[in-house]
Specification:
By secondary structure, the protein is α/β, with parallel strands linked by helices. It is globular. It contains 17 helices and nine strands. It starts with 10 loop residues before the first helix and ends in a 21-residue tail after the last helix. The strands form two sheets. A seven-stranded parallel beta sheet has the order 1-4-5-6-7-8-9. It is 41% helix and 9% strand. The chain binds coproporphyrinogen III (CP3). Coproporphyrinogen III binds next to strand 3.
């Protein structure tokens, strides 16, 4: 768990650390994206990778989105797959298809050839963060009626915008490397994973039945496989060391990349394990959790809180909590209070409106938003967000409406002050 900074002026960072805030902070996954005309105007002249690799443009896109929406945090404009290039793996974005790796990683030799010594090549992301941090270094003016059209409470407090850097989690990045792009079943990724063997540690979260099933699997001698099962097992890897080696290499690159972002001014690092929900809890625990946990600890050692996010993770939440991440991002498939219960009270939560609700009439958006605020019930440690990214064609007005709803209805009751205590909105309850 990250040690709270002695002075954390932004309500976003304070919420990450479960400190009291004047109102629930809000930012939105993929807030700079194709739904936004300002972004599309830039995209007309530059490819996605050009934007990412040109710090002035990446900073401009980041700042424009955050200011247009009036959110409490700016996520740096970059992409999960950028570290592939210095690792020696080419990829491109194909319209309508997402990222494509033409020569996917399928063998131990290929994994051995991946480089970990060129992370300096990613400095353009840190450079963009420096520009964004400089832009937002001044405290924002108090929330004005303009950004709070309903004229309701809002807040009269000056606040600094939070700056979010991000990296992919080892599993999600490995899945793009191994599958060569987006995937439905993650067959090659899981094959490589399973090739590293079965060594399930006893788990307090597994039922006795599951423990029994696991120990039966661990003790199953190789010759016990049915010949038909064996016929279906195609060797994609030469060795059981492939998966751990790939994870170790990703960990080193991601740690260095996160360090660059923190040095440049990122207040918080979000780790996207977007596709972890493809895994059973048992596989997540055995093949992924140790590496994600190590990554969380390494990033926290840089002195910033960590948000860990994935999609379809309802059954993985207790395991995600075990990583020690400061904040867990929830998708919309689980009611927020239920998700928070699964995570426990000592971790903050981020979420979790269905992004497609933004296509609904305003009264539905309002009802769903107020429901989430009610489920969070002003407990310290809730950051309002979507359950996944804003999709193309989302009406911008609805996105602005959503942010204004949080400003209007997200105010928290102020904690009672002890006699003589300064009238600071940031007074922390002991
Ligand atoms: O404001 C923001 O959040 C935008 C910054 C951002 C991008 N990618 C730019 C981008 C962020 C935070 C990401 C992270 C990312 N990239 C993730 C994790 C987030 C998630 O959705 O779970 C993932 C899985 C990727 C990989 C990736 N990049 C995919 C699957 C795609 C195609 C998705 C699509 O919408 O087509 C991309 C492309 C991409 N990255 C776009 C943007 C704005 C859209 C394409 C474009 O502008 O041409």
């Amino acid at each position: 768990m990250t040690v709270p900074a002695p002075h954390a002026p932004s309500r976003f960072v304070r919420a990450c650390l479960r400190q009291p805030v004047d109102r629930t902070p809000v930012w939105l996954l993929r807030q700079a994206g194709r739904y936004m005309p300002e972004y599309m105007a830039v995209r007309k002249h530059h490819s996605l990778l050009e934007i990412c690799r040109t710090p002035d443009i990446a900073a401009e896109v980041t700042i424009t989105a955050a200011e247009r929406l009036g959110v409490d945090a700016a996520i740096i404009f970059a992409d999960l797959l950028l570290p592939f290039t210095p690792m020696g793996l080419d990829f491109e974005f194909v319209n309508g298809e997402g990222p494509v790796v033409r020569t996917p990683v399928r063998t131990l030799e290929h994994i051995q050839a991946l480089r970990t010594d060129r992370t300096d090549d990613l400095r353009y992301v840190a450079d963009a963060i420096s520009r964004v941090a400089k832009h937002f270094s001044a405290p924002r003016p108090p929330e004005s009626p303009g950004s709070d059209p309903a004229g309701a409470c809002g807040s009269a407090v000056q606040d600094q915008l939070g700056i979010i850097g991000f990296i992919g989690a080892p599993f999600t990045l490995a899945s793009y490397m191994i599958e060569g792009g987006s995937s439905r079943n993650y067959i090659e990724t899981k094959r490589l994973m399973y090739a590293s063997g079965v060594a399930t540690p006893p788990s307090p979260h597994l039922s006795p039945l599951a423990e029994e099933a696991n120990s039966a699997l661990s003790s199953r001698p190789e010759h016990a496989w049915h010949p038909e099962e064996l016929a279906n097992l195609q060797p994609v890897t030469d060795s059981s060391t492939a998966w751990p080696l790939l994870m170790a290499k990703l960990l080193d690159v991601l740690t260095a990349y996160a360090a660059q972002q923190v040095e440049a001014g990122a207040d918080v690092i979000q780790i996207f394990d977007s596709w972890a929900g493809a895994l059973s809890p048992t596989d997540f625990r055995q093949y992924v959790l140790p590496y994600t946990t190590e990554l969380v600890h390494r990033v926290q050692a840089l002195g910033v809180p960590v948000i860990l996010f994935g999609v379809d993770t309802a059954t993985l939440l207790p395991l995600m909590r075990e990583t020690g991440a400061d904040v867990i991002g929830l998708d919309w498939r689980i009611p927020l209070d239920q998700g928070w219960r699964a995570i426990g009270p000592n971790t903050a939560v981020q979420g979790n409106l269905d992004p497609i609700t933004l296509f609904a009439p305003p009264e539905i958006i309002k009802a769903r938003t107020l429901e989430i605020l009610a489920l969070a019930n002003h407990r310290p440690g809730h950051i309002f967000n979507l359950g996944h990214g804003i999709v193309p064609n989302t009406p911008v007005d609805n996105v602005v409406h959503l942010v204004d709803l949080i400003k209007r209805y997200g105010a928290h009751p102020q904690p009672a002050r002890a006699a003589g205590e300064a009238a600071s909105p940031w007074a922390i309850r002991a």
